[in-house]
Design a protein that fits this description.
The structure is a single chain. This protein is about 60% helix and about 15% strand. It has eleven helices and six strands. Strands 1-2-3-4-5-6 form a six-stranded antiparallel β-sheet, with no helix packed on it. Strand 2 and strand 3 form a beta hairpin. The longest helix has about 45 residues.
Length: about 400
Amino acid sequence: MSIATRIDRYLARLIFVPLVATLTLAAMLLLLDKMLRLFDFVVSEGGPINVVWQMLANLIPEYLALGIPIGVMLGILLAFRKLALSSELDSLRAVGLGYGRLLRVPYMYALLFAGVNLAIVGFVQPYARYAYEGLRFELRSGALGASIKVGEFNNLGRRMTLRVERSDDEGRHLHEVFIRAEAKDGRTLAATADLGTFLATDDPDTIILRLTRGRLVHNAPGYRVPRVLSFESHDIPIPLPRIETFRGRGDGNDEFTLPELVRLGGSAKVPESLRDSVRANFHFRMTEVAMMLLLPLLAVALAVPPKRSTSGLGIFLSIVMVVTYHKINQYAENMAAQDRLDPVLALWLPFALFAALIVWMYWTLAHTPGGQPIGALERVFSKAGKAVRGLIRLGRRREPLPA
């Protein structure tokens, strides 16, 4: 095995661990933040808790599309930073391995994950997004069998109200039940019971609420006084509300695959507003994937600190640059979707500027003697840090001594 091959394997191991760790951490943080909001949404809609995990599973492709570029960049950056701080990078360059040769393994990772990201944003994410919206619709419409909210008045249709103090077995067995129903002719029925149980019937549009040990009040316009009776068991039929069918896929651009975007963007039968929106979304996805090919150059340019410096400024700048570019792309997509800018100009011009900046930073590091693309920023931050520490020491000196 040649020395170059061993070095490639060594670099691959150095990159792999921080890449996977960063990607996993980024995806988990995004999912945890969304999970709390999904729990609130599902509970407020009265849906089963297990639907939260289904919704989170459908969000994984979207968050991977955001986490993969950051993971690849930080994996490469942390690996080269380790080489630079331990002087291994100087040794490798001294034996004739320049930055161009050392970038072979990082570009293997970048190409691999660019393909993965293209598959996700082009084909997996649209279907996952549609499934996620379908679950939200079913929660709102009650198609998932929404449970009875304990301690609140629940509307079962237009003319029926139910309230329970406690429920067991996922809402099928109720305790301390109050129910009131009103007919179109003005008749009303109100009942309280110690127990209540939902039972299925042969009619799929109707269920039975069986009340046990309670009292019933029946009133009608022709009654002089309401009729009151006690019962051991009484059945009340409850008509289930009609559940609308969820729309077809493609209500939003995020639900179209890349071939569908190409077909719609070039069709004269599609309304112009939709065509602009589709073209903007297509170019947004493609620039996001193309940006991954620049990440190895950016990571290496920011990984190597100036001599006799261990500053982590490059790590901070790398995250800021990638996130800023993503936000600029989102803004450009919105502008192009509203026909304010041409999609090609709005999305590929920032990409070209971003690419020019990265290539300049890499060229300065790799081909300019003593070049350091973030050297000026390092000096500014170093002076700012010294000034802050000086002010802190001065403030401590002026503190009055305790009596």
